[in-house]
Amino acid sequence: MAIVLSSCNVKDKTLDFEVYETSESGNKLTKITEFKTLDSVVKITLNPEKTLQTITGFGGSFTESSAYLLNKLSQKNRDTILQAYFGEEGARYSLTRTHISSCDFSLNNYTYAPVEGDMELENFSIEEDRDDLIPMIKDAMAISKDGFKIIASPWTAPPWMKDNNAYVGGNLLPKYYDTFALFFSKYLDAYKAEGIDIWGVTPVNEPHGNGNNWESMHFTPEEETDFVQNHLGPKLEADGKGAVNILGYDQNRAGLKEWVDAMFATDESSKYFAGTAIHWYESTYDYFPEALQYAHNKAPDKYLIETEGCIDSQIPVWQDDAWYWKKEATDWGYDWREPEKKYLHPKYAPVNRYARDIIGCLNNWVDGWIDWNMVLDRQGGPNWFENWCVAPVIVDPEKDEVYFTPLYYTMAHFSKYIRPEAKVISHDNSDESLMVTAVKNPDESIVLVLFNEGDTAKSFHINLNEQSIDFSINEKAIQTIVIPSQQ
């Protein structure tokens, strides 16, 4: 039942709205119908006539590790998880990612083109994906009513195309630029033959490398731009795949300026780039608004999509919701970052990091946000390099148990209610300690997402087109407010 409150500003008219909350106190996307009355009131004014970026979607990533774990669970639990992510009653993921050949969240190293010197890629095969990865994607497609987009990224070219002939590190040799472009075209064809359309690709995941730990390949901004401008873009266009969106960069936001300066330097360099992909691992709290704004201003008509973020270098905490609200998590930079940049990596609460980052991104021109693995085990894998991480859903395949962490509900606050083609709208917020973002959906409903990181509840007075609503948010809570179309 919708909550109906009358507004003192509107004669004989009420404004319906619904509130869903996830909180440290135990709410899990719970519909709230009773609100606290507090002396201090936060005033938010929505300006739906002033629209900003168009939303591409929200979601998570199909990895071999996640797919392998799903296949080890009972059919009931496997279906429960996929319904939770893609079903109408679930998070309704609309934008996803997967890996091309192996990544660290694979069971082993592999490439679709293992035969050295096979310039025409006659031995190209996606056979490695048939047991786990492809069935997971197909099952998700069967569940999703509205469908979802897939971005695919290679962590490396086949080793024989690189100057170090290895999965880890090295550079793509220029003599293989055309062959690697063919590699993408073959991949798109192979997946299409399976009934899976790929919406977008990135030339490589994390072109700065990852400390020579797992699959990687280095590009400078100029090298990647050359590869896309003169090889990948023309090849996909020639093969009838010009509609596939090429997103450049695909790494942390602190490097955005030098990359977008190269990618979008001229009409020729930017022709085949549909946009820019970014990750969040530069900091556990800073979402780099200046860098995001710079990237948008450099290419205002292009996509700006967060393609990867997770609680990294951390073994998951099992069935303890409270931990996800406490500032006890660490990341790679807490231990290994150079001393002058360790300030960017303090301990943090996982829920806080997700909520802050997604809202911060939406308020600074990002149009899509993709989580990393959808499912991991209690160790934070499987991961062939033992690069343990956290996923919103943790499973124990031996006991056939499933744990939906608070991160799952945090993601759903956005993905379930903010739909593709929604428009981010301008808003004014009187409380800087509270994070707020707002959109207008294609059905004309207005959706706000609020995050209260503080230790005290807050009351709100929201103005929309000379109408108003009043409610409150608990301490340490995230809320989604849905205002149906008034037309």
UniProtKB/TrEMBL annotation:
GO cellular component, one term: membrane
This protein's UniProt keywords: Glycosidase, Hydrolase, Signal
Transmembrane regions listed in the UniProt entry: none
Gene Ontology molecular functions: glucosylceramidase activity
InterPro entries for the chain: GH (IPR017853), GH30_C (IPR033452), Glyco_hydro_30 (IPR001139), Glyco_hydro_30_TIM-barrel (IPR033453), Glyco_hydro_b (IPR013780)
GO terms under biological process: glucosylceramide catabolic process
Gene3D superfamilies: Glycosidases (3.20.20.80), Golgi alpha-mannosidase II (2.60.40.1180)
Protein name: Glycoside hydrolase family 30 protein
